[in-house]
Specification:
Elements lengths: L1 E4 L8 H13 L13 H4 L4 H11 L2 H6 L6 H10 L3 E6 L6 H10 L6 E6 L16 E3 L10 E4 L2 H7 L6 E5 L13 E4 L2 H9 L1
Parallel strand pairs: 1-2, 1-5, 2-3, 3-4, 5-6, 6-7
Amino acid sequence: MRIYVDMDDVLCETAASLCIVAAREFGRNVKYEDVRDFELKRAFNLDEAEMARLCDIAHSYKTLAGYPRVPGAVEGMKALVAAGHKVDVVTGRPPYTHAGTKAWLEAAGLGSLEITYADKYSRHWHLERYSSIPPFVPFDDLRERHYDIAIDDSPVAVERLSRWEGVKTIVLSRPWNAEYPLPANAERAEDWTQILRLALH
């Protein structure tokens, strides 16, 4: 099988880390379990300048390379690879985060995996002007890869995946997707143990 795995909040604890940043930098004391909106600007009640600053911090090499691992994620990824599956990391991060993203994966022993920077949220088309970074792939172009399974946490991405024929989507439970009604091709997992159970059986 070919398996798509999201990066933020599926492999690494991005939102929990950004709660700490939002409190430190802007005085926004939002508990992780209260991050009910996938759009962090609304979740942390940030203005445009504050949101730009949050993105700068979130996408810095030091921050990216230091995000904590989601419990069981690294072991789960290795189990998928060991079972003979083609596993791709598909992230909505902008491509200029490649160095930090690659460093995180290498430190986790996952450096051999392919990383695709996909425009999941229609946010970064202006990045095409950069020639020294990996390409930013239109999300729907990934249909041609014929993924069997997609593992994500974003309601936006899951909604788009629901239109792809033949893809089973596994949604890792997070506060911002707790009330999201899953499409017919999706199942919810509470942790990586359940992800593996759904993916491999």
